[in-house]
Amino acid sequence: MRQFLLVWAIFVVLVFGEENRLNDFYKLLNQDSIVKIDINFFQKQFENSFNSSGSFYSLNKNNYCYDSPLFKIIAQDSIVMTINYETNQVIYNSVDSRQVGILDILSGKNNFIDFKDEEKNNYIYNFNINDLGYTGFFEFDRDTGMLKMIKLEIGDNQIIVIEIMAINIIKDFSIPTFDKNIFEIIDLRG
């Protein structure tokens, strides 16, 4: 009888005590710490594709930085600044609070995301962004439970994938500075 109860207890813990990896990821992002995520970024739009590798820093809600050798993206509330080293341009852009991009999703912005079928798979969390007609998923590693990939399908032949290489909590990060004199400034904030 004891063996039966022990087996039953282990079964209950395994089935019902399984942590929600997605919620754990969001809890990590919502700490007071800075989260550094090393990523490979892939975008395919029709016949064109783009790849980038760099570090993504989740600073706090609505504030993040993506740093790669070719460009940097700095989001602070509703302003996004892109520093492009290939074209020597800095582009300022206002972002509508209802817009959601892949880096917003990676930074923890989930108020427009509708998650579906969470209970069926503890490693893949499918989602929709109904207002924009996007679909996608979060995929977690089966062995470590760490986030492995985020995929966002924007429409026909438009896919963005972020592959997670490492996640670390860091103590300090300064938003990169640059010499405005060597860049063309493009202000699209209107």
Q: Which quaternary structure do these chains form?
A: single chain
Quick one: biggest sheet? 12 strands, mixed
With strands numbered from the N-terminus, the spatial order across the biggest sheet is 7-8-9-10-11-1-2-3-4-5-6-12
How far the N terminus sits from the C terminus, by CA atoms, comes to: 73 Å
- Percent of residues in beta strands: over 45%
Low-confidence stretches: 1-17
CATH T-level fold name: outer membrane lipoprotein receptor (LolB), chain A
Query: What is the CATH architecture descriptor?
Result: Clam
Helix/strand structural class? alpha+beta
Mean pLDDT: 83
**Rounded radius of gyration (Å):** 19 Å
CATH class: Mainly Beta
- Tell me the overall shape: globular
> What would you give as the CATH superfamily?
Lipoprotein localisation LolA/LolB/LppX
Count of helical regions: 3
Number of strands: 12
Q: What share of the residues lie within helices?
A: 10-25%
Order of helices and strands: HHEEEEEEHEEEEEE
